[in-house]
Design a protein that fits this description.
The complex is a heterotrimer of chains A (320), B (222) and C (516).
Chain A lengths: L1 H15 L10 E5 L6 H17 L3 E5 L6 H8 L7 E6 H10 L11 E17 L7 H10 L5 E4 L5 H13 L4 E4 L3 H10 L4 E5 H9 L3 E6 L25 E9 L4 H16 L1 H9 L10 H22 L5
Parallel strand pairs in A: 1-2, 1-3, 5-6, 5-7
Antiparallel strand pairs in A: 3-9, 4-7, 4-8, 4-9
Chain B lengths: L5 H22 L3 H7 L19 H22 L16 H21 L3 H19 L4 H35 L6 H22 L18
Helix pairs in contact in B: 1-3, 4-5, 5-6, 6-7
Chain C lengths: L1 H14 L3 E5 L2 E6 L1 H18 L5 H13 L3 H26 L8 H12 L3 H35 L3 H18 L4 H15 L2 E2 L6 E2 L13 H18 L19 H22 L5 H16 L12 H16 L1 H7 L5 H12 L8 H4 L1 H33 L3 H17 L6 H18 L4 H24 L6 H4 L1 H33 L1
Antiparallel strand pairs in C: 1-2, 3-4
Helix pairs in contact in C: 1-16, 2-4, 2-16, 3-4, 3-14, 4-5, 4-6, 4-12, 4-14, 4-16, 5-6, 5-12, 6-10, 6-12, 6-13, 6-16, 7-8, 7-11, 7-19, 7-21, 8-19, 9-17, 9-18, 9-19, 10-11, 10-12, 11-12
Classes of the chains: A alpha/beta (320), B mainly alpha (222), C mainly alpha (516).
């Protein structure tokens, strides 16, 4: 298989290059989710690219479980030598610290936040039979029929769920939250009309919107999406300041040496800027982000933590 | 009152125990036990109502049904009215043995935690103790003890000692559980399986298993 | 009709298309690339289906980066091939060593393994392959002709309908057992309870996890299956006092006998029909296909007393059903973009990477992709039958290896497979626990198959039940008000009565006899 050949070639190359400094052996990029999901796929994309620049294999390891906490904790507690990295996500580093009663790591202090890889908006989609063609009409309908509307999400504490809770808070409406096991069954019930609306992630909602099976009302980020440029943002539609996205990026244990972090940051930025990687990330709905340096990333994580601390508490969602 | 059917006797008890465990796990320990202990032992989850079921509803209901079914099976096993010969139960270990093994695991785990060592080593030690106890005191239980110990050995040795040594442990301990143990045969089999595993699982399927022990820094294969 | 022929034409052209490929600097012209991808896929699928514990999900995920370099059609054909190839492979281990590779192979273990023990592994494997091939062909035709309308039917299934269907499935689980009825029901319930360990979807509460984060996502099916079927079986075999050298009786024929041929056709047809129907339901339909087929066969067959002891119908029907279900479960994926299981979810990921958004317009915007995939399923099934039938001889030879060499090998594959689920030793520990539980249960004459089915269905049932109640705002009558749901519930009651009454009558006869 091609993979075996690739490894053999790299093994030879690695032995040929003089072993000076980092990296001198393979790196492990831990993905705290099962294989095949968007986080995992983008990790593999980026890893493939990075290992060419670094001269050492970057092996992706899946350590799923507990909403990502198991993998995140594993990396937080591993040796800070620059060889173990984490693809941390909004779930592990902004939501779970407030959602879970006990979490074994500190999202800010236990990690160096290296590079933001993907930032994807969610989009508010409604079933076609719902008499609401804009956010304003939806809010009016919801106020006229309190408790009648059901909104679906992929799981309790997901960005889809919390976006809905934020929406309810800012508009003063009451809708019932229906959690599902994953976005796909949620979308199925939305198509069938058993639930009326959903804050689905852009990539999975797009085909049905384009085919006219679902109606999109707005995106959740502050900036419009280049995929649906005519779609207003929630911020523009009267929910001032609404800015939620799903994101993930590469992180390292807190005491990882600065030189390694800098080199890693440069390599990763090169990877996500590379045309073939950027194209495939775009296929997931990702837009290029202004957050580039580790410092910007850290600041972003800190602000997200705060936002979700407030939101999770007021929504009452929790995992014990 | 004779036990007509020891299989049903123990099956009934087992189901009642499982059922009760799930009911208590879902609803929490009853108040009188809590007061004896001086605090809530198990909190349980919210019951909710039939209309808006909480997380405890389904498990508590099912657990209750299981207790009932277990009781029926249990009582049936005691009935002496039905004709037919008594059924025999062959188990190479008894309830006491299970309790002892569970205690070994719990105690060693606790010791490891107090001493600050990783619990993985406690698991290995417990597996070894279980295997030895079985070999010495319950020779009929040798197969089951060895097979269980071998999987535990593999799992907890994989990261510290790498795939090669973990497989060696698995095959050797597992082979001890069989009827005959021929050294040469087992060694050759181990070698074949190690090579196969490395080629197919690590190189072919790229499973992220370490091949060499953790203390070997420059592994020739990865 | 003309449309179908035209579309299938597009498909065949796509599958047999000659392309030039670039390999390491060389450009090789005129390679039937998609066919090659199909072959690679089914070969890989068979391999991982045979290796217990390692499933198509992990493999496909690992291959995803490789697919970046391939054309979309080729990549998807390969991934699909892995999926249904694994079904064929999983049946093989179920029959040979009583280890189900997939949830759908659990039922094949029951009669298939018994046939193997009687020296009839050859006919069992042959029937499994032939039934799967027939079912694959028929269900692919169904996908080709009826995909869009069937997708609409699938959408009509909401949580009420799924719940009631699963109740029917659970009642079928009881039929799986050939021993005491009440113990089978107890095992089902125990399975249901064990399936509830983990995070509750509706409230986010962690249930029965003892504070262990490894249990937060529940106990995996593979872990339980390896433990209760694999480990348990090895222990049971080792305890045989005679210390048999050879695993099975002398192997009689490699090929089904004339009587086998006569007996297997009706079950294959019934299994195909049921599997095709259930496979289109994305919320867990395909899982029920094999269980439902077995139950149906046991109730309908005149050889029902042989079920559980090596009845060929007990292999033919579920095998056809699970392969038919595997093919039709592509319908929600290809028409609505909704994955029926984890493998499909991965394929969606693969499609998105290639820039294809799976959904309603794939059929119209990319007909070559859609019809190419469907046609490749035929080709794949053909390759699989050509691959598997001659392999039967090799598998039989494998069974003649002395058991003391065979079982450590099985142990290695199981341990590796279970460990690789989340790269933690904890899953192997759980497997050992379930091995112990399975051993005790078998000794107490409680069968593991009903437990496994309860385990799979438990969390799904609860999820659908609570969601239905949430959507209906607590109106329990909604289950009976919806026609499909009511239908399934009535069928469950009828089936339960059909099972319980003969058993009750027998008990009364025994009681009367005892009183005389």
């Amino acid at each position: 298989m091609r993979r075996i050949l690739l490894f053999c070639a790299l093994a030879f190359a690695a032995q040929a290059a003089p072993a000076q400094g980092w990296p001198a052996k393979p790196l492990h990029l831990v993905v705290p989710y099962p294989p095949g999901g968007p986080v995992d796929v983008s990790a593999r994309l980026v890893a493939q690219h990075a290992q060419q620049a670094l001269g050492q294999p970057v092996l992706v390891e899946n350590k799923p479980g507990a909403g990502g906490n198991i993998g995140a904790d594993f990396v937080a507690k591993s040796a800070p030598d620059g060889y173990t990295l984490l693809m941390g996500a909004i779930a592990t580093h902004a939501i779970n610290p407030s959602l879970y009663a006990r979490i074994p790591y500190d999202a800010l202090k236990d990690f160096r936040h290296v590079t933001l890889v993907v930032q994807v908006p969610n989009v508010l989609v409604v079933n076609n039979d719902l008499p609401a063609r804009s956010v304003q009409e939806l809010v009016a309908y919801a106020k006229a029929h309190p408790g009648k509307l059901d909104f679906a999400s992929g799981s309790t504490g997901s960005t889809g769920h919390l976006a809905g809770e934020m929406f309810k808070m800012m508009t003063g409406t009451f809708m019932v939250h229906i959690p599902y096991r994953g976005a796909a069954p949620a979308a199925a019930d939305l198509l069938a009309g058993r639930v009326q609306l959903m804050f689905d992630n852009l990539a999975s909602a797009l085909p049905n919107v384009k085919a006219g099976k679902l109606r999109a009302l707005a995106v959740t980020t502050r900036a419009r999406s280049s995929f649906l440029p005519e779609l207003p943002t929630l911020d523009e539609s009267g929910l001032k300041g609404f800015d939620m996205s799903t994101w993930w990026g590469v992180m390292a244990p807190a005491k990882t040496p600065a030189a390694a972090v800098e080199r890693l940051s440069a390599v990763l930025l090169g990877a996500i800027d590379a045309p073939e990687v950027r194209e495939r990330l775009r296929a997931m709905g990702a837009e290029p982000s202004a957050i580039r340096t580790p410092e910007q990333f850290s600041a972003f994580v800190a602000s997200e933590l705060q936002t979700y601390a407030v939101l999770v508490k007021r929504s009452g969602a929790k995992v014990e | 009152m004779t036990i007509r059917n020891p299989k049903d006797f123990w099956a009934g008890l087992m189901f009642m125990a499982f059922g009760a465990a799930f009911v208590v796990g879902a609803l929490g320990t009853p108040a009188f036990l809590d007061s004896l202990w001086g605090g809530p032992i198990l909190q349980g989850y919210q019951l909710g109502s039939a209309v808006r079921m909480g997380p405890a509803y389904f498990p508590a209901a099912l657990g209750g049904i299981l207790v009932l079914l277990g009781a029926v099976i249990f009582l049936r096993s005691l009935a002496s009215r039905l004709k037919g010969e008594a059924v025999k139960l062959h188990l190479p270990f008894g309830l006491l043995d299970l309790v002892v093994v569970a205690a070994v695991f719990a105690v060693l785990g606790e010791i490891a935690e107090r001493l600050g060592i990783s619990k993985d080593y406690a698991m290995l030690a417990s597996a070894a103790v279980m295997a030895v106890l079985a070999a010495v005191f319950r020779p009929d239980a040798k197969p089951i003890a060895m097979i269980l110990a071998s999987s535990l050995a593999f799992a907890y040795l994989l990261v510290p000692l790498g795939l090669v040594l973990a497989t060696v442990a698995l095959v050797f301990v597992g082979a001890f559980g069989g009827h005959e143990f021929r050294w040469k045969e087992v060694t050759i089999l181990t070698a074949v399986l190690v090579v196969f595993s490395v080629l197919v699982f690590v190189e072919g399927l790229t499973l992220p298993f370490p091949i060499c022990p953790a203390f070997v820094t420059n592994c020739p294969i990865h | 009709m003309h449309d179908i022929v035209h579309n299938l034409g597009i498909g065949f052209v796509e599958v047999f298309k000659l392309q030039s490929i670039a390999l390491g600097g060389l450009t090789i012209p005129d390679v039937p690339f998609n066919i090659l991808m199909c072959l690679v896929g089914v070969l890989l699928g068979t391999l991982i289906g045979v290796l217990p514990g390692i499933g198509p999900v992990a493999t496909i995920a690992m291959l995803l980066p490789v697919t970046f370099k391939l054309s979309p059609v080729g990549a998807l054909i390969m991934l699909a091939g892995i999926y249904y190839g694994a079904q064929y492979g999983g049946s093989t281990t179920a029959i040979l060593v009583n280890i189900p590779g997939e949830a759908s192979s659990v039922v094949t273990c029951i009669d298939g393994y018994q046939m193997a023990r009687q020296g009839r592994a050859g006919p069992a494997l042959a029937v499994a392959a032939l039934g799967s091939f027939f079912a694959g062909c028929v269900s692919t035709l169904i996908v080709a002709m009826f995909a869009p309308p069937l997708a609409e039917v699938a959408l009509k299934f909401g949580p009420w309908e799924y719940f009631s269907l699963m109740v029917l499935g659970l009642v079928s689980a009881v039929v799986l057992a050939h021993g005491s009825l009440i113990k089978a029901i107890a095992m089902v319930i125990l399975g249901l309870l064990l399936g509830l360990v983990g995070t509750d979807v509706n409230s986010g509460v962690l249930r029965f996890t003892f504070g262990l984060s490894e249990l937060a996502d529940g106990i995996g099916f593979v872990t339980v299956a390896m433990g209760m079927f694999g480990v348990c079986e090895i222990i049971a075999n080792l305890e045989q006092k005679e210390g048999r050298e050879i695993f099975t009786k002398k192997v009689s024929h490699l090929w089904p006998s004339r009587e086998d041929w006569k007996r297997m056709w009706a079950p294959i047809l019934r299994g195909t029909a049921l599997g095709s129907a259930l496979g289109i339901l994305p919320g867990g339909g395909a899982l029920l296909a094999s269980f439902g087929a077995y139950t149906l066969e046991k109730k309908v067959s005149k050889y029902s007393h042989e079920f559980g002891k090596g009845a060929i119908e007990g292999v033919a029907s579920p095998e056809s059903a699970n392969n038919a279900g595997a093919q039709t479960s592509f319908i929600p994926l290809l028409t609505l973009g909704i994955p029926s299981n984890a493998v499909m979810a991965l394929m969606i990921g693969a499609m998105m990477i290639q820039g294809i958004s799976p959904g309603p317009q794939v059929m119209s915007e990319k007909p070559a992709l859609f019809w190419g995939m469907i046609t490749s399923m035929w080709v794949g099934n053909l390759m699989l039958i050509v691959l598997n039938l001659p392999l039967i001889g090799m598998w039989i030879k494998l069974l003649t290896v002395p058991y003391r060499i065979l079982y450590p090998s099985i142990l290695v594959f199981m341990a590796v497979g279970v460990f690789s689920i989340s790269n933690q030793p904890f899953d192997c520990f759980l497997m050992s626990l379930f091995g112990l539980l399975g051993y005790i249960c078998v000794r107490l004459e409680c069968e593991p198959a009903p437990l496994i089915l309860g385990f799979i269905l438990g969390p799904l049932m609860e999820e659908h039940l609570r969601r239905a109640m949430l959507l209906a705002r607590g109106d329990a009558m909604s289950f009976l008000q919806k026609p499909i749901s009511a239908g399934f519930l009535v069928a469950s009651v009828v089936l339960l009565a059909a099972i319980a009454l003969p058993a009750l009558r027998k008990k009364r006869e025994e009681a009367f006899a005892a009183e005389e």
